[in-house]
Design a protein that fits this description.
This protein is α+β, with helices and mostly antiparallel strands and 232 residues long. The chain has two helices and 13 strands, in the order αβββββββββββββα.
């Protein structure tokens, strides 16, 4: 093979390896992210959701009686009174300086969220015992209540959101000093005296690789000598 073609083939392999490495790093760490594990088509909502720690009135909803973004399952959070904040979360080991991303879809049926009640996705850093203050936010906003520090995904699901429409939300930030854990929440913050309901589906939580990691991989591979074809 001509040296130019060998080099082109080698570069193509390098980029394939880089893309593969990136895809592995961005794998969804969540268990049951689409809430399919407990869903039964046509069935009434079931308490909780496999793989998630739930609290308040949280349940797995099933099509066709309840909305889903994909598949037949979704997470249903209900707030029948105030103050009431149902939700579900998963916890993972994390280290200071890591960048984590959390994203997914939310929906509120027509008239199901009123006043100041809102639904959201949220990233919370922990030292194993306490929630930690935010250090750096790439996407989203800092929770305005210092009692509940974390990164709130944007946009919120609230009374201004289009009813019966799946809304995409995302949060991303860097773990502060002292981090040993990261938690990913789906929440419905009930602040209005109505029976509020919100649905969540197709959630994804991923660690974002450092920009330098991919650059070092490419530099190292490009420095490899060309393998020359032996002559007979």
């Amino acid at each position: 093979m001509h040296p130019r073609f060998r080099r082109a083939a080698r570069i193509a392999c390098i980029f394939f390896l880089a893309l593969t490495t990136s895809a592995i790093s961005l794998a969804n760490v969540l268990a049951n992210p689409g809430f399919e594990a407990d869903a039964v088509s046509g069935a009434a909502p079931l308490p909780g959701a496999s793989g998630w720690t739930s609290f308040g009135t949280a349940s797995t909803a099933s099509a066709s009686g309840d909305p889903t973004h994909t598949g037949i399952g979704s997470l249903k959070l209900s707030s029948p009174s105030v103050p009431n904040t149902p939700g579900a979360f998963q916890t993972f080991a994390a280290s200071p300086g890591q960048t984590w991303d959390f994203q997914g879809y939310m929906l509120a049926p027509s008239g199901a969220i009123a006043g100041s009640t809102f639904g959201l996705l949220k990233i919370v850093w922990r030292n194993g015992t306490n929630d930690l203050a935010i250090s750096a936010i790439n996407i989203g906003i800092s929770d305005p209540d210092p009692v509940f520090p974390g990164i709130d995904a944007q946009p919120f699901l609230n009374s201004a959101s289009p009813p019966d429409v799946w809304q995409f939300a995302r949060a991303q930030g860097v773990a502060p000093a002292g981090t040993t854990q990261v938690r990913f929440f789906a929440l419905l913050v009930g602040l209005a005296n109505t029976n509020s309901v919100a649905y969540f589906d197709d959630l994804q939580a991923s660690e974002i690789p450092e920009p330098g990691s991919l650059a070092l991989l490419l530099a190292g591979l490009l420095a490899l000598p060309l393998v020359r074809k032996r002559r007979a």
